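Hey, can you fold this one?
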Amino acid sequence: MSKQTFYLTTPIYYVNARPHIGHAYSTIAADVIARRHRLLGDDTFFLTGTDEHGQKVERSAAAAGVAPQQFADEVSASFRTLWDRMGITYNDYIRTTDERHKQGVQRLWKHLEERGAIYLSTYTGQYSIGEEMFVEGPPGTIGPDGKPTETVTEENYFFKLSEYQLPLIDRIESGELTIQPESSRNEVLSFLRGDLNAVIVRVYDESLFADAHLPSGTVVPAKLPVNPLDIAYDRGWVLKSASGKYYIPGALKDLSISRSSFKWGIPVPGDEKHVIYVWLDALANYMTAIGYGSDDPAMQERFARYWPADLHLVGKEITRFHCVYWPAFLLAAGIATPKSVVANGWLLFDDSKMSKSKGNVVRTETILDAFGTEVYKKQFPDSTKREQDLFGADVLRYFLLREIPFGQDGSFSFDAMITRYNADLANGYGNLVSRVLTMISSNFSGCMPVYPYEAPSEPKSLPLSILFEDKASSNNFFAFLRQAMEVIGVVDGKITSDAPWKLAKSDSPDDRVKLAASLYSACEAIRVITAYLYPIIPHATAKVWAQLGLGDIEAAAKNGELKNLEWGGLKPGTKLGELAPIFPRADKGLAQIMIDMENPTISTPSTTSTPSTTSPASVTPPAPSKLVDEKTTHTSAVPTDPTHPGAAPRTSALPEANPGATVGGSYAISTERPGTPSHTEAPASGPFAASAAGSSTPDTPQIAIDDFVKIDLRVAQIVVAERIPKADKLLRLEVDLGYEKRQILSGIAEWYTPEELIGRKIVVIANLAPRKMRGLESHGMLLAASHGENGKPVLATFGEEIALGSRLR
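Sure. Predicted structure:
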């Protein structure tokens, strides 16, 4: 019987910057999934690599005084070296400058051309060199990188993307192409269906509700006599997909897929004055790496074996490109589309001082070096650098997957990492292993005791069944690790209740039986927990497995011993391995050490209990924030249309058109300039746009209608809600306005939990100027009412269905 295949990929990372923890986040998740599928017996192929073409790389190389290939070689090597330091188990590492990739991309181009999916045309527009994309606006428009755009007129080849609107909608709605999380799926479908809100407004503006006597311009009637989209459908303005959902025909536009203004790319076959644009080039890596376009029979067999991909892991900012453009290319070429795309969220750094001095970027090497030398090496002075690196990698792996629900944004801080590590690993899992195995060593000559009773399938006192559900297999790492820690707490509590140290002092035969039963049961629980934790913290669990006397955990994984775990797997009499601490405690001062490692040229006041030895006078004033990829931070969003000719997806976890500084591969948005006073965590007038002190008429100044119409009130839905570290009153919300998503910070944490907010439709002031709170940008304000000075605010919401983005008038 042949093995089931499983093919997964990370985004390939753009070589305009060296790796940081944002890149590591996607790669770690992929490694965990790959290890899990391998131990289940699946024929698993795990791909990562680098995206190396484009005008940005060409210019960056010129500025550095080196050839583009040398520039790409150096940065790509830094990614591969880091993954090897971390023990990432990729099967292949693709580079878009590889000859095999070039051959495959050109073959894909020819295939698309032969099938009539490509045509030649011209385009003039404003081009952002830093982001390698066209943007809307007049000459000199400030691009997403904060620099003026250049007017570019080019003869380009275009791809007939517009022909694949309905096939893509049907494929996603039917589940043939699954997209997670749900918010990303909704975003992609909204993009594909077009601006249905505009159609609804058109129905109102043209007074098509004759029976309702609606005046022209009415957007939110008190009661809808019929769905306005039904009227639009009758008039042919919208059509229906196979599932009966409305979409606007023609909303998807054709895309430019070549450039002739620079040369650093793969030449268009037959017309070498053009190069294939970076996103068609880069996306094809998922096929070229496993043999697409190869003349080698072995590589052709590999492609037939693994394609289509089971899972593309991507940053959420590039979901659209993987779920619209990539499957459209494949459909046009007659090639099977991927089965699933899963988007991880962004990492946000909550230390504003760090943001100013280092652009909010945290290098993975900092965590490896700090935990490896300051924690592991101090406990094990004779340990190798390899052991230290793998230990540090385990700490980072555990923290990122335990702290952040996968698919959502999450905050990163050195203090939070140390706290989580000490609580869950040093004091939790590690302490349990140490205390149990030490007692077996002392009381049973270092050999596994005999379980004295009839072996149960699973002791009722140890809730291991929740681990057997194994949410890690469905990418729900957060829930799985939370449950694993709950089980560890139960086992630890059972040991405390049994008090084996007291039983060991007793001369009673019954107590000796109870001692054996208690310690054996605890060891069995540790064995099961360790097997399930192996894909997430492989280095640490290997040490536990060896101390249990079970040998090499890697061999156990390959032999299938880590799946279908049943109670009683530990053989009595098994000799324990050499005992030693697994997770030495980390001192809180380690946070300052990591801050100093990230800021080698400045002194930063400590945010931990470790006092700073630097006087305030010696602290270098913070420089303006800058992006890790050398893109300048800017403070106003430039409208961009991804369907615009040439709009470029980036197949990396680096940020795109977003007005903020990166934090671990994502955004910590800040509009603060050096020298400007920082804002408090809530607006002086309170966190809400409306409140009522009581039933009496409020003593507020009157405004003219011209003032009122300046306020843009819109319907929005809360899609993400989470607490902000060290901010008791604030919640960070992501709201969907239909036409875009916004981040809003709101001081309602005292009255609303994040869980009860997700999915609510609310009213927001959409044209409120952005402001900075807690180092993050808040772009908008919620509308709410409250009674009394300290009354609970009640969010303004709707009792009837209303389209997102609808304007209140």
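The first strand starts at residue 5 and ends at 9. Let me know if you want another pass with a different chain boundary.
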